[in-house]
Amino acid sequence: LVNPAAGTVATTCAYCGVGCGVDINISKQGDSRDVDTLNGCRSHPANYGRLCVKGSNLLNTLEPEQRLIHAYIGNEQVSVDKATSFVAEQFNKIRQEHGPESVAFYVSGQLLTEDYYVANKLMKGYIGSANIDTNSRLCMSSAVAAYKRAFGEDVVPCNYTDIEQCDVFFTIGSNMAWTHPVLFQRLERAREVNPNLKVVSIDPRKTATTQLADLHLPLTPGSDSGFFNGLLRYLIDNKKIDQNYIDQHCNNFASAMKACSSWTLDKVSAFCQLEKSDITQAYQLFADSPKVVSFYSMGINQSNTGVDKCNAIINCHLATGKINKPGAGPFSITGQPNAMGGREIGGLANQLTGHLDIDNVDHQQAVKSFWQSPTIATKAGPSAVEMFSKIQQGKIKAVWIMATNPAVSLPDHQNIIKALESCPLVIVSDCVEKNDTLAFADVKLPATGWLEKDGTVTNSERRISRQRGVRKSSGNAKHDWQLICDVANKMGFTGFDYHQPVDIFTEFAKLSSVSKTHGLKFDITGLSKLSEQEYNALQPMQWPINDQYPLGCSNVFHDHKFSTLSHKANFIAVDAQLPLLGFKETDNNFIVNSGRIRDQWHTMTRTGNTHKLFTTQDQPFVSINIEDAKAKQLKNNQLIKIANSYGSITLPVKIDEGVGQGQLFVPIHWNKQYASSANVTNLYPAIVDKISNQPQLKQTNATIETL
Length: 707
Ligand code: SF4
Known about the structure:
Layout: E1 7-12, E2 21-26, E3 35-40, H1 53-56, E4 71-73, E5 76-78, H2 80-98, E6 103-107, H3 113-127, E7 132-134, H4 141-151, H5 161-165, E8 168-172, H6 176-179, H7 181-193, E9 198-202, E10 215-217, H8 224-237, H9 243-249, E11 250-251, H10 253-260, H11 265-272, H12 276-288, E12 292-296, H13 298-301, H14 306-320, E13 329-332, H15 339-345, H16 361-371, H17 384-392, E14 398-402, H18 406-409, H19 413-422, E15 425-430, E16 443-446, E17 455-458, E18 463-467, H20 480-490, H21 501-517, H22 532-536, E19 541-542, E20 569-570, E21 589-595, E22 622-624, H23 626-631, E23 639-643, E24 648-655, E25 663-667, E26 699-706
Parallel strand pairs: 6-7, 6-14, 8-9, 8-12, 9-10, 11-20, 12-13, 14-15, 15-16, 21-25, 22-24
Antiparallel strand pairs: 1-2, 2-3, 4-5, 4-16, 17-18, 18-19, 21-26, 22-25, 23-24, 23-26
Helix pairs in contact: 2-20, 3-15, 3-20, 3-21, 4-14, 8-11, 8-12, 8-14, 17-19
């Protein structure tokens, strides 16, 4: 596909988990400047031609001067071949001296499925350790764990068309107008077409999303599981449950019923700090509407109680049978373009490929046998935060960081920096020349970027789409899968002799037959025989994709047979708790709520290169409620220091009536490259959910001080 003839090439947006189709319009064949314009792909089922401001400006992020185009060992520029030989030699030396647990990969939801697959195969099947985790741990691992607890498998049982088909749409812990804008546009349109569609927004802040809502419930940050335990009790008390559905398709209802029994309206009101009348109104809407979607993202997941919060939501859908039918279901939305692909290939340290279990001996042997690999990881490896802690302790002596920026994004910031400083060998492969993590690299490997890479991604509704490369690689950059396979081959392993992405993808698709054999829904065997031509022409489709559903299947649990042994879904008894905030309460304490803004992305490594994306917000800020600002005598743009015993940041004030009293809102994007003291992870200790190990990156507490 590189240097295609003039015309249009369909690819996928490189930003969020909506996974919008993008048409690249090429005016003439030739060098890399021939990619002229882009627009939303009209036939892609995620967006039908729509794009948000980030997606519309993607072409402006590809400036050659911002790219890492050579390999480096230390400060010396070397060939990529020399650099991968060095990495292979060092990895072999370290693992021979210290064992397989002494090396690690920290990967990313920005990788394509093919990249992810070979990285996971190398670490778990050949090096023989589960020391591979992904930055997706930070955004959705609680949702993964909750689906697994409820359904026996990490399966999202919803589709984007549910947005158009529901009667009531709950947004929970999600400012989707800014974070998943095209889905918000679909919601706006659905409201125009069906004025009876009600929107309920559960969010501590007033946001662009809550403006659309018929009912906004500004609950205490992190109190969601109390709210949904209360809903379950309300449904039971008011005989709004579907007892037939529960009896036929669910386990464990009695324990969930017991756990929610104390959650009276009074208790929910006190716990969530909400008006009883508002709570009742929301509960009635859920109870009386046949088709309800609960749409949730980081506000639910990024918490030490994240998994329970997800399960408290899922419980209400199971109890009413509002699941596995058009317009209904608990819908977790991912933040990155291929977080879902990473879930499918087993990119988390506690998974095997194809939704198989790392601690299940049958699953281990089946994957090992499929790969014909010398070994297989037999226990969960360290999650992201644990991995960097092991690096700091000297237990992991070499880490390869791929396409992510942990020096900014991980909590426990100061210890992450110490870990990177003290690690004997840090390898960073990336497509950008500068980011905070690259500053610690002993070896830099130049990776191809968007419009150069070829492969697949899976979006939040399980839809696999192609990303298509239309540009030549910049400088000496190689595809991530090539860099990984080069190192694997040079380490002396067979099993990495791939020539093109389709070879990797079809192997992965074949491996999904093992998942199917073990009773799992993840099945893309229908794509296991694709030729290169068919792979290049692949149209977006939702798994499962197999003989029964050659064009994919939108309702994965249409027969209500879940992936548990009994084929029944599990209710989970949720002990609702407020999140641990980490620091001692004082009179001057504020809850710091972190989040994203409309025009920036992650740690700004891409959006930071686009001037247009600074038009509406060109500097970092801290939002504070108008009453708090008055009490503290603060004015707009005045600098304040936000501090706790862990660290501090300094930001200009933005007075915002949408932020609750006693709370602050700080965007996650700015870091040292763009502002001297704005990195919000300076305030976040390493508090994680005990089930998912997802860090609590949503709330912490801190004091403020005028400067
Ligand atoms: Fe890209 Fe997400 Fe915007 Fe779609 S909604 S254009 S995937 S950033």
